[in-house]
Design brief:
Elements lengths: L6 E6 L3 E7 L5 E8 L6 H16 L5 E6 L3 E2 L2 E2 L13 H6 L5 E5 H12 L5 E6 L3 E7 L2 E2 L30 H4 L1 H12 L5 H9 L3 H25 L3 E5 L6 H15 L6 E4 L4 H12 L1
The chain binds zinc ion (ZN).
């Protein structure tokens, strides 16, 4: 394969590292991933990352982009309340060993950038639902990423006296619609802690209690998204991250909640594509 016309994109997650190679027409030509479950220390993590980079960029690429779970300044991640072991890592330096053209940004900024490159809409909000909840904002065709904390929607409070967040504040949206949020709602309805995947399968099989979990969850999603609509009035909201797989289960109550809080017409709400962060990171390396 002639890799000279290709760009690599990497997605650093809390439990995996994912990478794609795209061509100049923005087609994904290769996708790889490695699990890092239980290996949450920097040394092991960086070894896994080097292995993945070698596999993707071994024969040379035109540029490498990377999405990381937290705000970034000059290629360095300086805060990550869900992956503390990564704080201070200079990913820009790591990537520059393999390519002169590199881009490192917050993971959801990368996703929003990728959406911007492939959609006609110019005002986009991307939200990812995982352990943490992240956001990326495109305003009039421009990614809003010049200030490092812009788009940290997960720490927007939806309850002034609410649940304590990993960031130290109370009522952060992330604690309601991230994985810990789903688990908390599952304890309420099922009396035990269950993961989003299990709850999705059970709801799909008709479990009424699991459906109730997703209904509650949708309401909490709707509260946060309504806030974002009031501030940004996006044309489209793209939802990614692991929990987005259950969108069909919470879409109805989410939209109902949004309608009850908004005077405007709802934006289109769609699921992010596969490899959305890695893809967007590669786009960023190409176009930024
Ligand atoms: Zn918080």
């Amino acid at each position: 394969m002639d890799t000279m016309g290709y760009y690599a994109g990497i997605d650093i997650g809390g439990s995996h590292i994912e990478g794609v190679l795209i061509d100049e027409k923005l087609r994904i030509v290769k996708a790889e991933s490695v699990g890092i479950m239980g290996k949450r220390n920097r040394k092991v993590f960086l070894e896994e990352l080097e292995g993945l980079l070698e596999e993707l960029c071994g024969k040379g690429v035109k540029g490498i982009g990377m999405g990381v779970p937290g705000p970034v300044k000059k290629g360095k991640i300086f805060w990550s309340c869900n992956a503390r072991f990564l704080e201070g890592t200079d990913f820009g330096e790591i990537l520059r060993k393999r390519s002169r053209k590199v881009a490192v940004d917050n993971d959801v900024n990368c996703m929003a950038f990728g959406e911007m490159c492939t959609r006609k809409e110019k005002n986009i909000v991307a939200v990812t639902l995982g352990t943490g909840v992240g956001g990326g904002i495109v305003i009039d065709g421009k990614l809003h990423n010049k200030r490092p904390y812009a788009g940290e929607v997960g720490h927007m409070s939806i309850d002034a006296l609410g649940v304590k967040c990993t960031c130290g504040a109370r009522g952060c949206w992330q604690e309601y619609v991230g994985v810990r949020g789903v688990e908390r709602i599952s304890r309420k309805h099922l009396g035990k802690t269950m993961e989003p995947d299990e709850l999705y399968v059970m709801a799909k099989q008709g479990s009424r209690k699991s459906k109730a979990v997703w209904e509650d969850y949708g309401r909490l999603m709707g509260v946060g998204l309504a806030n974002l609509c009031n501030v940004l009035d996006p044309e489209v909201i793209v939802i990614g991250g692991g929990i987005s797989g259950a969108l069909e289960m919470f879409e109805k109550s989410m939209k109902k909640e949004m309608r009850s809080r908004l005077n405007m017409e709802l934006p289109a709400i769609v699921r992010g594509k596969e490899h959305a962060v890695a893809f967007g990171a590669a786009c960023m390396a190409m176009k930024y």
